[in-house]
Design a protein that fits this description.
Strand order of the largest sheet: 3-2-1-7-19
Largest sheet: 5 strands, parallel
Strand content: 15-25%
Radius of gyration: 23 Å
Number of strands: 26
Distance between the termini: 55 Å
Helix content: 10-25%
Shape: globular
Length: 496
């Protein structure tokens, strides 16, 4: 098996399918029992007062490491509790204030004549209908921002951080919000050739756009979220686009084969080609040293002047391994308040391995919704008397083909757990719904092109997990009728 095949297989098949959304919510072999909630706010107010000349940050009571979604929503929560001004410092490796990262593979990649998203338009917290937190917002709120200087070291005993530029920072309470880094192809098979792209931040997206402007043949490696969304963007650029992945169908961690076929056909109607169940040997160069082709294990090649690798991500643990990692899911292990094993240090967002209460397992969720909610829950617990455990309902969505000129826009939402048998209703014209049922209970539901009211029903169904009449649901003549049946089951159980 080639190194690329092993890498992609490890990412996509690391855990048994029976665990549901194991790509985002892996099952732990043993349930983590959170520490008692006796650690109150007073005990977390660690020493942060020191001579001003000794440290590079002026605000030392609270320090957030990371500048993504979670950091932006954490900052807002500090402001809401009047605990930011002169107290909060954010240290980021990026050159920008926190922004809504999903835009990078959606609106940001739109062709230049189709109104692409650009900063400051999608700074947090506009993604949830909140205020746009521009760099000036942080200044006005008295929040100290340190840009383009990632943290490279921590001294837990001294409560200090070291940055890449050599700055020494002091903290009282520390919130780690470092997110993930893209999984990469090894250098030896062309993973860093000119024309090969990964996308995690604005700099990555800008580099990709520069390539798309002069590209003719695009190959996307990976059939998950990133692959699907970038392929939809490439269609808007009118480029020859091929998606390559080792699985049997798109988004195998969530889509059923039947559901995936619907989306694959739509992409094919837009000119996208698929190579499924194949492995890559290496990326080949042209005369100028840039990528020119993708070579498969069977010896065949696909021409490409731009290659995007979208094969997953890994938690950006960096210098924080001492805090305790969760081997089964990766990331920094925390309890239901996002406290690590060290008092006064927290982890939120993609990097946190937390107790997924409703499914009784440990999870690490790579999604903007969790980044927002975990940040808010953690900071509220830190600053107030809130003691209840984080109770997250897994939620995923995608929106593509939304630029001008597209005949068909795609917008689906999923809530719950994809375990058990499935029932599919609808013809994808434009609606289709998939219901996951286990032991007579509705565990998860995915809906394409729903109305606002229909989408609002999904989390209620997934959290309540009502008993459903499977035969009745199977015989529904439309998505609307199927959702009505599910809603009725929910109302019956709520009334009992």
């Amino acid at each position: 098996m080639s190194s690329v095949r092993r890498l992609m297989a490890t990412i996509s098949n690391s855990l048994p399918r029976k665990h549901g959304l194991s790509l985002w919510c892996p099952q732990s072999t043993s349930i983590y029992h959170p520490r008692p909630s006796s650690i109150g706010f007073r005990s977390l107010q660690r020493s942060y007062v020191a001579a001003s000349s000794a440290f590079s940050n002026e605000n030392r009571e609270f320090v957030i490491v990371g500048g993504g979604n979670a950091a932006g929503y954490a900052a807002r929560t500090f402001v809401e509790h009047d605990m930011a001004n002169g107290r909060l410092c954010i240290v980021s490796k990026e050159a920008f204030a926190p922004y809504e990262r999903p835009a990078l593979t959606k609106g940001y990649l739109f062709p230049l004549d189709k109104k692409p998203a650009r900063l400051p338009g999608f700074h947090t917290c506009v993604g949830s209908g909140g205020e746009r937190q521009t760099p000036d917002w942080y200044k006005e709120k008295g929040i100290e921002m340190l840009y383009e200087d990632p943290v490279t070291g921590i001294d837990i005993e001294k409560q200090t951080l070291t940055t890449n530029s050599g700055k020494l920072l002091k903290y009282g309470s520390l919130i780690i919000a470092t997110g993930c880094t893209a999984s990469r192809f090894p250098d030896k098979i062309g993973g860093n050739l000119p024309g090969v792209h990964y996308i995690r931040d604005v700099a990555d997206a800008d580099s990709l756009i520069s390539s798309l402007e002069r590209a003719k043949k695009v190959v996307i490696v990976g059939g998950g979220y990133i692959g699907m969304e970038i392929a939809a963007a490439a269609v808007g650029w009118k480029l020859d686009t091929t998606i390559i992945f080792p699985e049997n169908h798109l988004l195998q961690r969530l889509f059923t084969p039947s559901l995936a076929r619907r989306y694959e056909e739509l992409y094919q109607e837009n000119g996208v080609k698929f190579l499924k169940g194949v492995s890559i040997k290496n990326l080949e160069t042209g005369s100028g040293g840039s990528v020119a082709a993708v070579k498969l294990e069977d010896g065949s090649t696909i021409e490409a002047d731009t290659v995007i690798i979208g094969i997953g991500a890994k938690p950006a643990v960096g210098p924080f391994e001492r805090l305790g990692l969760k081997s089964t899911v990766g990331g920094i292990q925390v309890d239901g308040q996002f406290r690590t094993s060290v008092p006064g240090i927290f982890a939120i967002g993609d990097v946190a391995a937390f107790p997924l209460k409703m499914y009784d397992r440990i999870a690490r969720v790579e999604h903007v919704d969790h980044a927002r909610r975990s940040a808010q829950h953690c900071i509220k617990a830190l600053l107030s008397a809130q003691t209840h455990t984080y109770d997250y309902l897994p939620y995923f969505y995608s929106r593509v083909f939304e630029y001008e000129g597209c005949q068909r826009k795609i917008w689906w939402q999923f809530f719950g757990d994809n375990v058990g048998e499935t029932i599919e209703i609808g013809n994808f014209d434009p609606k289709i719904a998939t219901f996951w049922i286990d032991s007579g209970k509705l565990k998860g539901v995915l809906l394409e092109s729903g109305s606002t009211e229909e989408f609002e029903l999904l989390p209620k169904l997934a959290r309540s997990q009502p008993s459903v009449d499977k035969a009745k649901l199977q015989n529904a003549s439309s998505v609307e009728e199927a959702l009505h049946i599910a809603r009725t089951c929910l109302q019956v159980e709520t009334a009992v």
